Inverse folding.
């Protein structure tokens, strides 16, 4: 159901296609593809202000409130006048608990922390989580790693080892799991397998995004900012109690910037981004024991595509056929005779790409409904229903350079429906507490992807297309529960279990035509130079155009057991054993119909950890966790020579394990000086020999470090608050984020960069510094801030492109350069 008040109306026009207009009563319209139109910003501000004024008038006439806002998920640990840390409450185990009392490895980020660190997406969350890292080429391909295990997914049937949950709704599709984050309450990142309290598979970890819900106080906030790279942004919310039992909240976000990578020829940004999001929610308390919550959110990204370039400005990225000396010196075997030779600039944030309109357009709708009913004193039934729908349309220059090396076209449509029902007695005083639940998930995913080589006859070769279309429908059920018993007033034991069943039905089509080099492995292509150079044509492609129908089912039973000892109110020790599971799936790009029928099995994990959580005089909070994560039947994407041909196949490669130590702490050194630290040391490695050369013989990979798995990660932040004479506060904050180097794959690790002894497939370590200066008025209503990120312009590599002979160096994508800006917000 949608909020029926006439004060706010949202009209979606042509949903499922390109959005033509978004109209909000009070009125504005925002045409898409207008990244440089700064009038949009003023129009949005005016439209939201009009809506806010209308809601204010409605709210004050219905249920007047004049209190100042208190939007936070933290509560004072003691009286406000007493010097001490705030208390943070989390729901990582599906019931409220102080973070220092939770026997799980969890990073909790409050709304205040995320504002200070400018954490705006789930990708940002991962980068500030100990033991986690992020790789990504664009918003539709996020790849997270927790405890050395990567969430890499490709195709429409694969699962992620790291589950994203938004307001208790699991997001099973990568293209939908990193929307813009605004008006947030908190974020919880759980390391290790989850499943006995969350109803969906999570074999390596879980990211839970929790948005703010309506409250029964009238409040609001509006903020605006501007910065480098032509950045403009605004966000805000209005919260109105419509009666003593009904409250409403509306929040919005708009941001745009010109991009971090600049065109050499035009000086303009190549990878700009623009997001508009709006969320409306209702909270209804018809009785003291019954609560109904509804949320509707719309999110649209209108981006230019990300850009890759070479890492070394001293070698050419593409070489003209006439540059014989350069070809002899640098060109890999099979390098085309391009029309021009191109060297990337030495500034990593400058390059040139092919001519054309490269874009990523994404639309998402997220609907959530929750019913919480206390059926008897301390006994609760909770029902959470979710529906998420999204579409992606994209075209990107995958390798960069002014030559038409490789374009990637993609169109995706996905929807997810979930229903979860839980019953528990956690609100009772019983020594035996329990939780039982049932989860149903159904998702559909259609994915069209096409690699376009040598467009418009690049390098004198014909247009070449490698086209895949897959569809997958998943039906998943999970039955889960936990029993927790207080053996004594200090000692607790908890056991849990989860049974899961996943059934997938899909279809696969794979065709290609053009120059045979990039498509030689596809069924029917007889690439045999110098006698045969091309394979098929647009009317008669090679491969298979008749859909191959696939079906498979996977199921597993997982367990959990923990022992928790509360030494006193300030110190707790625990030991935990937990198991995880990730369903199998189907091949992403099979070269033949026979290969398309090869499915791969589920992977499972066993997690062992011990931990300590401690507080010291309410001025320091520290947690230490040691763990061993053991993986079985790890799903590995690799190139293999099979009976169906040489192709990129997903198999259950064998075992992997990670041993590690995680530390997080917050220290209030003086009433004005605060220090926050986080870090992890880990040793993630394969424990099996795997065929990585494609000859069918296992290679000596036992002991290889897993891909996208740095040995160390660290975050540090310190801030000092200066109390001014007028009662306002000036705060200076500095922060640091660092990680060790990370391999982008397990194959070809012996290869080095051209003209260097540095490994080609290794992303170097990164050390990123930032700073923020903020001023808060004495009445806590005004906040103004100046900020800078990547202060020393660390050249962090976020992504390394696939190997092929069409370019000299592996194309890479760099993280953001130094960026800066200013923001101001008003709370009422």
């Amino acid at each position: 159901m949608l909020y029926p008040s006439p004060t706010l109306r949202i009209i979606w026009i042509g949903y499922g296609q390109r959005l033509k207009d978004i109209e909000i009563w009070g009125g504005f319209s925002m045409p898409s593809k207008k990244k440089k139109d700064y009038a949009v910003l003023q129009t949005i501000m005016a439209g939201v202000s009009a809506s806010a004024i209308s809601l204010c008038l409605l709210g004050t006439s219905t249920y007047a409130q004049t209190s100042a806002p208190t939007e936070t998920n933290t509560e004072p640990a003691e009286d406000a006048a007493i010097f001490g840390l705030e208390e943070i409450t989390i729901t990582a185990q599906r019931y409220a608990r102080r973070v220092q009392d939770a026997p799980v490895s969890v990073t909790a980020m409050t709304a205040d922390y995320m504002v200070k660190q400018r954490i705006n997406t789930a990708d940002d969350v991962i980068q500030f989580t100990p033991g986690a890292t992020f790789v990504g080429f664009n918003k539709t391909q996020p790849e997270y790693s927790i405890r050395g295990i990567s969430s890499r997914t490709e195709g429409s049937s694969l699962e992620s080892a790291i589950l994203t949950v938004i307001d208790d709704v699991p997001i099973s599709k990568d293209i939908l799991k990193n929307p813009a984050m605004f008006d947030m309450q908190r974020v919880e990142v759980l390391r290790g397998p989850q499943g006995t309290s969350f109803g969906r598979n999570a074999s390596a970890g879980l990211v839970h995004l929790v948005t703010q819900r309506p409250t029964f106080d009238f409040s609001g906030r509006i903020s605006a900012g501007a910065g480098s790279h032509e950045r403009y942004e605004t966000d805000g919310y209005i919260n109105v109690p419509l009666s003593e039992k009904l409250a409403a909240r509306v929040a919005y976000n708009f941001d745009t910037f010109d991009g971090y990578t600049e065109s050499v020829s035009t000086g303009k940004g190549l990878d700009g981004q623009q997001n508009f999001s709006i969320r409306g929610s209702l909270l209804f308390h018809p009785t003291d024991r019954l609560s109904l919550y509804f949320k509707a959110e719309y999110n649209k990204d209108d981006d230019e595509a990300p850009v890759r370039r070479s890492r070394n400005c001293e070698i050419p990225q593409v070489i003209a056929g006439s540059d014989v000396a350069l070809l002899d010196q640098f060109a890999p075997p099979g390098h085309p005779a391009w029309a021009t030779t191109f060297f990337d600039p030495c500034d990593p944030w400058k390059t040139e790409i092919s001519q054309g309109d490269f874009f990523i357009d994404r639309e998402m709708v997220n609907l959530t409904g929750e019913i919480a009913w206390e059926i008897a004193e301390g006994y609760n039934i909770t029902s959470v229903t979710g529906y998420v729908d999204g579409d992606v349309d994209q075209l990107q220059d995958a390798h960069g350079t002014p030559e038409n090396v490789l374009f990637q076209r993609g169109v995706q449509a996905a929807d997810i429906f979930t229903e979860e029902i839980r019953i528990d007695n956690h609100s009772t005083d019983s020594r035996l507490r329990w939780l039982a639940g049932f989860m149903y998930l159904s998702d559909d995913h259609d994915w069209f992807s096409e690699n376009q080589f040598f467009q418009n006859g690049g390098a004198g070769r014909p247009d070449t297309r490698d086209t895949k279309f897959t569809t997958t429908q998943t039906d998943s059920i999970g039955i889960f529960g936990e029993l927790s018993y207080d053996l004594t007033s200090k000692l607790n034991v908890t056991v849990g279990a989860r049974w899961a069943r996943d059934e997938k039905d899909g279809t696969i089509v794979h065709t290609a035509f053009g120059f045979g080099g990039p498509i030689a492995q596809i069924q029917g292509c007889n690439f045999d130079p110098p006698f045969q150079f091309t394979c098929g044509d647009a009317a008669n492609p090679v491969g298979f155009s008749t859909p191959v129908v696939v079906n498979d089912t996977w199921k597993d039973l997982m367990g959990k057991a923990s022992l928790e000892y509360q030494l006193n109110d300030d110190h707790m020790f625990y030991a935990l054993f937990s198991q995880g599971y990730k369903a199998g799936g189907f091949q992403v790009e099979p070269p033949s119909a026979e290969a398309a029928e090869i499915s791969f099995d589920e992977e499972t994990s066993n997690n062992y950890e011990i931990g300590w959580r401690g507080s010291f005089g309410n001025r320091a909070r520290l947690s230490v966790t040691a763990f061993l994560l053991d993986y079985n039947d790890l799903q590995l994407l690799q190139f293999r020579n099979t009976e169906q041909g040489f192709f990129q196949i997903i198999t259950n490669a064998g075992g992997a394990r990670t041993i590690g130590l995680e530390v997080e702490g917050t220290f209030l050194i003086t009433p004005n000086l605060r220090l926050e630290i986080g870090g992890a040391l880990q040793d993630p490695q394969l424990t099996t020999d795997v065929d990585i050369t494609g000859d069918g013989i296992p290679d000596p990979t036992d002991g290889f470090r897993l891909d996208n798995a740095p040995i160390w990660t660290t975050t540090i932040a310190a801030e000092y608050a200066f109390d001014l004479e007028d009662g306002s506060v000036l705060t200076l904050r500095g922060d640091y984020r660092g990680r060790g180097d990370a391999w982008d794959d397990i194959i070809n690790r012996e290869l080095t960069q051209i003209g260097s002894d540095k490994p080609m497939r290794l992303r170097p370590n990164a050390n990123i510094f930032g700073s923020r200066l903020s001023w808060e008025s004495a009445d806590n209503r005004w906040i103004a801030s100046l900020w800078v990120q990547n202060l020393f312009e660390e050249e962090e590599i976020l992504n390394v492109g696939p190997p092929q002979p069409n370019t000299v160096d592996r194309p890479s994508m760099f993280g953001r350069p130094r960026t800066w800006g200013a923001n101001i917000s008003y709370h009422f």
User: Anything to note?
Assistant: The CA atoms of residues 137 and 454 lie 21 Å apart. The helical segments are 39-62, 111-117, 122-127, 324-330, 593-596. The mean pLDDT is 86.
